[in-house]
Amino acid sequence: MSGNVLGERELIRRISEILGGVENDDCVVIDAGERYLVATTDMLHRKTDFPDIMNPWQMGWMAVAVNLSDIAAMGAKPAGVLIAAGLPPQADLYFIDELFSGLGDCAAYYGTRIIGGDTDSHQELTITGTALGFVEKDLVLRRRGARVGDLLCSTGALGGAGGGLWAWQQGVESDFITRLLEPEPRLAEGRALAQSRAVTAMMDNSDGLALSLSDLAEVSRVGFVVQEEALPVAAGLVEMVGQEKAQEMVMSAGGDFELVFTVRPEGLEAAQRACGLTVIGEVVEEGIWMEKGGERRRVEAKGYEHKIGGMD
Amino acid sequence: MSGNVLGERELIRRISEILGGVENDDCVVIDAGERYLVATTDMLHRKTDFPDIMNPWQMGWMAVAVNLSDIAAMGAKPAGVLIAAGLPPQADLYFIDELFSGLGDCAAYYGTRIIGGDTDSHQELTITGTALGFVEKDLVLRRRGARVGDLLCSTGALGGAGGGLWAWQQGVESDFITRLLEPEPRLAEGRALAQSRAVTAMMDNSDGLALSLSDLAEVSRVGFVVQEEALPVAAGLVEMVGQEKAQEMVMSAGGDFELVFTVRPEGLEAAQRACGLTVIGEVVEEGIWMEKGGERRRVEAKGYEHKIGGMD
Questions:
Q1: Domain check: are A102 and A214 in the same one?
Q2: How many Å lie between the alpha carbon of A295 and the closest alpha carbon of chain B?
Q3: Average model confidence (pLDDT) across chain A
Q4: A164 and A102 belong to one structural domain
Q5: Are B75 and B176 within one domain?
Q6: Best residue in B11, B19, B71 to probe A by mutation, most A CBs within 10 Å?
Q7: Among partner residues A28, A119, A132, which is closest to B11 by beta-carbon distance?
Q8: Structural domain harbouring B288
Q9: CB spacing of A19 vs B103 below 8 angstroms
Q10: Domain with A123 in it: what CATH number?
């Protein structure tokens, strides 16, 4: 982080102070009677959030997917998505139709709908999605709750979206590019993990595994040891970019939208029945460590972080 | 509307078709068990939505106020506001502090909070607010429901925000400018009107009275006759801009954030006990009419409407 800008996390801390505290979870949690309402909002811009090669249908898909991933991370079931879209003057009807089809298709794929929104004109395409969901009060999963001795787990494979970004930038054809452009949030998995009652803390890894671990550690006041050789590296990634770069993508590249979570040891079988998962490490007292061949080294919380605001 | 752009309402119709129908209310309504959850989202941009003279605190206030006005229009009680903010690189800490103080102050003034959100960097300041609220199922108010013979009513005074815009553009000092820059949504009034059980349809007049009546008429499949001399013109407006311009501001200028609603005739006393209101006309079979001295003329649905999308 350079000296004259606030990083996203530092800015959020400052804003949180002004607003009297904002809970650090993938969604906010609101009492809705028998259940909790969970809600999340995410603003995406053409230049900073959508790779150049993305078509408008994929932009729509992405804008819904990033929000549904936050619903998944709470163990909740989606109840609808609101979309505020700032459309550029050069957007023609093809663009508008494709964009909104992508929005609707992603919602439908995950059993929900675009239920409302707002349209506005804007020089640069800007889409703010807000996803709503419900979860039983005794099933909600948060970033806090991990305890020393819990197992650290991840759904799916890691590094694929990072590989897609690399392949696109290098002009290499690769299925990873589709992974990057059409992410698939883990809603069924999040829900099943919540129902397993074996999970103690959860979040998505949308900004990369290392940053997710840093956030989980901070909120749960614990540390993690990651077993390097246990990491579920996306199949074919090492072959494409080499061992070292693949490792870096697994830890620091954003865009995978897998779930990272902790499981109480006696609950591992229940969690495994809920969904495919990999045990990648365990919860320790403090620090974030990578272990290989019995040796531990500290991991920096490096990942995808927007820089915001000038402060000269 | 010129030939090569889609107006906001036309665009919304097209999007609604793609998405399989979106209910035309100030908020979407979601079953939350005992009550309804209502939700609304609104995207605001520095250039198109915030007058140049606005200070950052007022931008924050405005971004929350426009969303809370939609909560008010459903008869609901706010349960929290999410804010996605795209902050320009030149935003210094003073700007950020003031902006977020304005956001928080408006929410607190109406008994709610900024409960979460997202920050991003963006060339032009962009704020998307999403307000959530709850309302008892038998009290929710919608745009549909007005019946022939119902009385047409408005809270507060009309045209003040239009007067503020005029005064600012003319370089005239006026309290109306504050009305424009610091709107006060009618949350207590909306809630009390819902509890009166006398109201049959409601919406806010944020885009001007004429457009609100056009929307209410379309959704309720009715018409309106407005008594010109009954309109609650903001005090001092005629003196500042003259009779004709004042009339135009009352009908077509956005920004007042009053509630426009219909009351069953036998419920008028109950509605009057709920809050200060003015009966401005009545519900008829079709058309939107202005009546003065026994003569009726048709009103065009003219108001503040964004133009979006190119279609050559």
A1: no
A2: 38
A3: 91
A4: no
A5: no
A6: B19
A7: A119
A8: 151-302
A9: yes
A10: 3.30.1330.10
Is B1 part of the contact surface with chain A (CB cutoff 8 Å)?
no
Q: What is the pLDDT of residues B193-245, one digit of tens each?
A: 999 999 999 999 988 999 999 999 999 999 999 999 999 999 999 999 999 99
Answer with the one of B136, B166, B183 that is the final residue of a domain.
Answer: B136
pLDDT tens per residue across span A15-25: 888 888 766 88
Contacts of B30 (CB under 8 A, 6+ apart): A79, A80, A115, A132, B36, B37, B38, B39
Question: B97 φ, ψ to 5°?
Answer: -60, -45
ipTM: 0.90
Nearest to A115 among B22, B44, B83 (CB): B22
Comparing CA positions, the residue from B50, B247, B73 lying closest to residue B155 is: B73
User: How many degrees, rounded to 5, is the angle at CA A157 between CA A151 and CA A160?
Assistant: 140
Q: Same domain, yes or no, for B273 and B245?
A: yes
Sign of the CA dihedral with A101 first, then A105, A108, and A113 last: negative
According to the model, what pLDDT value does residue A302 have?
A: 59
Number of domains in chain A: 2
For residue range A52-96, list pLDDT tens digits in order.
899 999 999 999 999 999 999 999 999 999 999 999 988 899 999
What pLDDT does B115 receive? 94
Q: Which residue of A19, A96, A118 is in closest CB contact with B100?
A: A19
Is residue A171 scored above 90 in pLDDT?
A: yes
* Nearest to A309, CA basis, from B304, B95, B78: B95
Query: A45, A119, A134, A137: best mutation site toward chain B, by most B Cβ within 10 Å?
Result: A119
Q: What is the mean pLDDT of residues B1-5?
A: 35
Pairs of residues, one from chain A and one from chain B, whose beta carbons lie less than 8 Å apart: 235
Q: What's the rounded Cα separation, in Å, for the pair A85 and B12? A: 11
Average pLDDT (A223-252) is: 96
Residues of B in contact with A310 (CB under 8 A): 89-92
B42 pLDDT more than 90: yes
pLDDT value of residue B137: 97
Comparing CA positions, the residue from A259, A63, A42, A38 lying closest to residue A133 is A38
Do A118 and A64 lie in a common domain? yes
Is A266 contained in some domain?
A: yes
